[in-house]
């Protein structure tokens, strides 16, 4: 196949550091092979996730100046670059790439916008300026959302045409996480896999763990890294928990760590469809989680009672109930694993994205 016959996709990320949206792109790109030609732009210059892409893929990287507080100038620059690159499809990711959507408001390329959720500034409410911008800029775009909660926001709050808004749940490689069963051991290990950022609110998990520290054999294992790590270590010391908490740091493949957990905990202030919850479900784990995004509908019915409001005391109660009852953990974990296999296999996600990438620009842009 000639290079000119391969559809060119331009992906604009606020950052190409390792994260949920970036890892989903890696999964898709590796599955597609050379079906597409990709160009990736990370607006912050961080391309750490590029190391996860297969070496034989046709992926290029670019940079462009994007000063803060210079929207009009940025939009002009981006539009000129769009004309030069002439991609078949422009794909923007989250609010941080919205200026590229603005640059394409008079369409140069077919536009797909993928929104995975919101940062700390929108954890409790949508910002009116951003709502109005999305309403205007995305009205003729194809919008892809991994959660039903986001679909409701896009159609009701942003007032986008439901025919252009697609709910595409995240999927994972189930084989990487499925295991025959969790080893019996004396220690109950509560684990989480998360970027140590403010919106993940790992401090809530530490305070919840403090309330169950009377379970002498309980330990908390935190897999991930980020700007909050130092403060969280200090908090663990202040709470007298340093001997019971392990900060693992960033790992390339967390699958083996899920198998070392007895309970998976999520303590975030804001999520939509967290991959870590899917991975924990595929690993046969029960989930104790704050009630954010789609988590309550992602987990099996048997697990729903352990999805709680954003309160460390209630999260501690959910963890305690699971920690003290091995049979309950096994039953809930098995139900989650069945739900993951039924609803969240990555093959369906890959096929849906391929159909979206292959579609032609609608009439009238």
Major sheet size, sense and barrel closure: 7 strands, parallel
Number of strands: 13
**Strand order, biggest sheet?**
3-2-1-4-5-6-7
What distance lies between the first and last C-alpha atoms, to the nearest angstrom? Answer: 28 Å
Integer-rounded radius of gyration: 21 Å
CATH class of the largest domain: Alpha Beta
CATH fold-type name of the largest domain: Rossmann fold
- Spell out the CATH superfamily of the largest domain: Glycogen Phosphorylase B
Tell me what portion of residues adopts beta-strand conformation. 15-25%
pLDDT averaged over residues: 92
Summarize the amount of helix as a percent range: 25-40%
Helices, by number, come to: 14
Overall outline: globular
Q: What class would the helix/strand composition place it in?
A: alpha/beta
CATH architecture of the largest domain: 3-Layer(aba) Sandwich
**What's the domain count?**
2
Unreliably modeled segments: none
**H/E series, N to C?**
EHEEHEHEHEHEHEHEHEHEHEHEHHH
Q: What is the structure about, briefly put?
A:
This protein has 14 helices and 13 strands. By secondary structure, it is of the alpha/beta class. The protein is globular.
């Amino acid at each position: 196949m000639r290079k000119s016959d391969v559809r060119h996709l331009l992906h604009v990320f606020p950052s190409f550091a390792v994260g949920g949206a970036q890892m989903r792109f890696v999964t898709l790109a590796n599955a597609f092979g050379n079906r597409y030609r990709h160009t990736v732009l990370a607006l912050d210059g961080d391309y750490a996730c590029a190391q996860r892409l297969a070496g034989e893929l046709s992926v290029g990287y670019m940079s462009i100046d994007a000063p803060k507080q210079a929207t009009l100038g940025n939009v002009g620059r981006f539009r000129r670059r769009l004309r030069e690159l002439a991609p078949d499809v422009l794909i923007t990711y989250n609010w941080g790439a919205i200026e590229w959507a603005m640059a394409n408001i008079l369409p140069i390329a077919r536009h797909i916008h993928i929104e995975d959720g919101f940062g700390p500034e929108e954890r409790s409410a949508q910002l009116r300026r951003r709502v109005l911008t999305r309403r205007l800029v995305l009205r003729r775009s194809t919008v892809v959302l991994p959660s039903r909660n986001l679909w409701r926001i896009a159609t009701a709050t942003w007032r986008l045409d439901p025919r252009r808004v697609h709910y595409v749940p995240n999927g994972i490689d189930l084989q990487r996480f499925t295991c025959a069963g969790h080893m019996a051991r004396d220690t109950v290990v509560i684990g989480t896999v998360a970027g140590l950022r403010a919106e993940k609110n790992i401090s809530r998990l530490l305070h919840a763990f403090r309330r169950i520290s009377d379970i002498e054999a309980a330990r908390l294992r935190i897999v991930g890294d980020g700007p909050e790590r130092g403060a969280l270590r200090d908090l663990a010391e202040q709470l007298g928990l340093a001997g019971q908490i392990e900060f693992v740091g960033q790992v390339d493949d967390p699958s083996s760590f899920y198998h070392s957990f007895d309970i998976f905990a999520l303590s975030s202030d804001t999520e939509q469809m967290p991959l870590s919850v899917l991975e924990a479900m595929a690993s046969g784990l029960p989930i104790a989680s704050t009630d954010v995004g789609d988590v309550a509908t992602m987990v099996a019915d048997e697990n729903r009672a352990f999805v709680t409001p954003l309160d460390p005391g209630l999260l501690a109660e959910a963890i305690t109930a699971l920690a003290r009852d091995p049979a309950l953990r096994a039953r809930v974990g098995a139900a989650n694993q069945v739900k993951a296999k039924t609803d969240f296999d990555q093959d369906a996600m890959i096929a849906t994205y391929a159909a979206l990438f292959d579609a032609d620009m609608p009439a009238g842009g």
